Amino acid sequence: MRIVFLGAPGSGKGTQSQRLIERHGIPQVSTGDLLRAHVRDGTALGRRAKVVMDAGKLVDDATILGMVRERLAQPDAARGFILDGFPRTIPQADGLNTLLADIGQPLDVAILFNVDDDKLIKRISGRRSCAHCGQVFNIHNLPPAGPGSRCTQCGEPLQLMQRPDDNEATVRHRLAVYNEQTRPLIDYYRARGLLREIDADAAVDAVTARVEQILAPAG
Ligand code: AMP
């Protein structure tokens, strides 16, 4: 199964990807995560990307495509993958088509996660993650606070972090960038008969059920 998850920041693509990894044994390829790993490791690419990411802008297409090409060549991607947060521009989508044609693995489906902008802003500004394992929480559904509070995923003492680009001003900019540069991909994939849509404002389990329903015919 080769899947693109399309949707604004905070629409739940990452959460649903995590669930599919477990159920279907295919990796999530998140260009945001790949870039954050470069930033953490202090690579030249990471130092360049950090400035762009902190401003809520997009990293250039050539850098992103190079990173994805390298990632999809790893053995774990041979049985399929979920592309999360990629492509984000028409040139990236064109580059992906070329790349997938080269490796003889065409895309099965592009799933669009629909959520209203005002809800996204609230969701993303409340987003926090465990400093140890990266598990994502929201200040509205945190594990109980206080001494002895532990991460429900890894069991380490709970220490929460906020992404530098998850503050409200940067989130508004990221949404504007999404609307301008990524939204055109909806028509792009619709025109190719690959687009399926989801109401991603529903409860997490309901969204998963809908994703699975879409994927069932894809096998
Ligand atoms: P994300 O974790 O997907 O929200 O991505 C965080 C940031 O990484 C974005 O705001 C961009 O600065 C950068 N980024 C991630 N994926 C891409 C992409 N496909 N194209 C350009 N920039 C990206």
What does this structure look like?
By secondary structure, this protein is α/β, with parallel strands linked by helices. 47% of the residues lie in helices and 15% in strands. The chain contains 9 helices and 8 strands. The protein has helices at residues 13-24, 31-41, 44-54, 61-72, 90-102, 117-125, 168-182, 184-191, 204-215; strands at residues 2-7, 28-30, 81-84, 109-114, 127-130, 136-138, 160-161, 195-199. The strands form 2 sheets. The protein has a 5-stranded parallel beta sheet, with helices on both faces. α4 packs parallel to α5 (90-102). It is globular and about 55 Å long. The relative contact order is 0.19. The structure holds adenosine monophosphate. Residues 9, 31-32, 35, 52-53, 56-59, 64, 85-86, 88, 92, 165, 174 line the site of adenosine monophosphate. Residues 9, 31-32, 35, 52-53, 56-59, 64, 85-86, 88, 92, 165, 174 line the site of adenosine monophosphate (AMP).
